[in-house]
Amino acid sequence: MGSAARSFGGRFWALIGATFLGFLGMGTVLPLMGPHVRNDLGASDQSVGLVIGIFSFVALAGRLISGPMADGRGRKFTFLTGLASCGLAGVAYLLPFGLAGAYGGRVLQGFGEACLYAGAAAWAVELAGVERSGQTLGYISSGIWGGISAGPVVGAWLGSFNRAAAMQVIAAGVAFAALTRIPEDYRPAPHAPRKPLMRKSLWMPGIAIGLVNVMYPVVTGFLVLHLANHGNSGRAAFTAFAVMVLTSRFFLGGLPDRIHPAITFYGGISLMAVALCVLAGGPDRNVAVGSAALLGFGFSFPWSAVGSTVLRKTPPSERGSAVSLLSAFYDLFVGTSSFVAGGVAKHYGYSAAFLMAAAALAGAAIIARWVFAGVGPITEDADMGDSPDELCLAERADS
Question: Are 109 and 26 in contact (CB under 8 A)?
């Protein structure tokens, strides 16, 4: 039976649920981390920044470990490792280690996030079939965004950092227990040759993903501040952005599987560019909220378009590494552009930061020409005809 005949069954939705729980725990703790470090632990503002920021660096380094782990040890092992690391992060926050516990928890959380995503994405794609990888990545992203979005609400309801940390332990533990009961079909090759960490075929897709996401630190860092003098609509606009990303990725994430992925990519970044330019002008409340929603809608498509294109070209034994390396480009560009956007906003104003993000999309449009060159919509027959061995031979030039 062809992989296209498979449906999104119970195992698949259990993975999405476990992904949601893993990121719910992270989202519950994060908004309370700064006040905890500053007020409860008596540390400086600089320490707050270091505690928050160390997560990104560890997650970036963790991608280089989690991808090969998912390919060499299995998707389930990697997913469980990520959940265990997230659970231990919550324990570190609760132990009386002071600032060291905060740093240790963020390190464990960063590594856990890298493993969680690599295992979840590669495993889910194999359960659903590579011909539906766009829709699968959309569902995975919905689980992530859902957890991150619901987490702060749960944290506010719990009312204290210690309760939020305990919630992270519980959420990770429930997901871990559920995943132990789910069988895995993927079997790593016992003596697979070592592959280079950075395959040349991933450079262009990674750069395209990175340039698209230059927008993210601009929106998260400066949208509320920028719109404070233009109707004070920043919070409503950011909510519209986040809700649109969540719903669009859940319901429309499969578009790159049904039409040429380049169409969804270029359509998405075009809408993003329009929205960023409108927001840069400091519109009134209704236009700002509508533009933010348009930005979220456009932002829903580039990742699944590029990710599905890469995964269709990648043999099963390397899919974990491919997903992790694309995510590493995301981390690298988001982290770097955070500093650049701060400098641009300081010297030229918030509007310039939004225009900078729009200019990055122009760069992504150019790079994407090489990403989608020669790519057409996948069919069931084509998927059935490409065995893992044939794909490995086709990709040997990258090793």
Answer: yes
